[in-house]
Description:
- This protein is an alpha+beta fold.
- The chain folds into two domains: 207 residues, Endonuclease III, domain 1, CATH 1.10.340; 128 residues, no CATH class.
- 47% of the residues lie in helices and 11% in strands.
- It has 17 helices and seven strands.
- The chain is globular, with a radius of gyration of 27 Å.
- The two termini are 53 Å apart.
- The chain binds a DNA duplex through helix 2, helix 3, helix 6, helix 8 and helix 9.
Amino acid sequence: MHVITRFLRFWYLQNKRDLPWRNTDDPYAIWIAEVIFQQTRINQGISYYRKFMGAFPHIQSLAMADEQKVLKLWQGLGYYSRAHNLLHTAREIVSVYQGVFPTDYQRLKLLKGIGPYTAAAIASIAFNQPCAAVDGNVARVIARLYGIRDPMNSTKGKKKIQTMAEALLDNNDPGLHNQAIMEFGALHCVPLNPDCLNCGLKLYCVAFQNDLVDTLPVRVKRSKPKIRWFHYLVCCYRHNEATQVLLQQRLAGDIWNGLYEFPLIEADTEMELTTLVEHPVFKQIIQDKQYVIKRVSGQYKHQLSHQKLLVRFFHIEFDEVCYNSKENHVSLINESNLNDYPFPRLIDRYLTEMGLSGKGY
DNA sequence: AATCCGGGGCT
DNA sequence: AGCCCAGGATT
């Protein structure tokens, strides 16, 4: 056995946290834990794990569960597709596999929501299969130990890390080994300011020996900010002061679909989304619509760092566009008759005429 | 290979 | 603000 492997095992037995899913070999319990703790800190997810196992103690109870109840339990955890996939896969295992988990990596990975990491984790921890589970912690530990400078989120870097993870794997006790190296990364070989002077692996660690601990692992940088346009259609009523604005619904699903009174913006005005949100008229609108605020702030948080968000307004005369195709007369647009109007096509036509089609996408 | 999904903690 | 976390699915 590799000396590093032996050390990790020794270190783990001395330092491991007593976590609820570590005292079981139930693949269901291990599966739930692995999924909950994808991209989620232990402290953040542990109460969810307890709640979840309390509500659905075995796979049959989860398979029979109401989806809304599962999602409700998941509320606040994020990445809600995990909850959806969990339910889907529980039902599949019960109905197709008679409630019995597949035991090998390849078949586990076929299940929805189970990727390379989770498949390896379940196969090794629950079924003692010799699979190296590589998560963020393992990647960091290995990148430092072997001085891997290829970005850990590049194909090349991933392959190198995977190869070394497999070389380090303890085939006699793969489940313990995987948890050991993960725990070592989570508690000792931490991302920032690890305590290398008190590390039992410092003599073997290429990063420590070459003063690269603070620079490894490397990640590929995000691409430069892209311009994105949000186009607003302002409907002008020819014999009426009333004006309405339609917020275009984006196919990418990243902008609001709604209809508001919005009289103050001039046609062809351009501004950054940050400015728009601070506009007094728009502030009133977003205060009325909680979901709009949520979408705006969520979008900011996620995309502002590499996208520049711009809005543009344009006007179309009332009688050109605001007809009611079903009843063949003119009427105010509202939430209920919104779909009677071909706004998406009008916006597309406008963008084409203005030479803006595709711009900023 | 790039992008999206989310919330929270850390520096 | 930016980075990171016990990733996976989609394009």
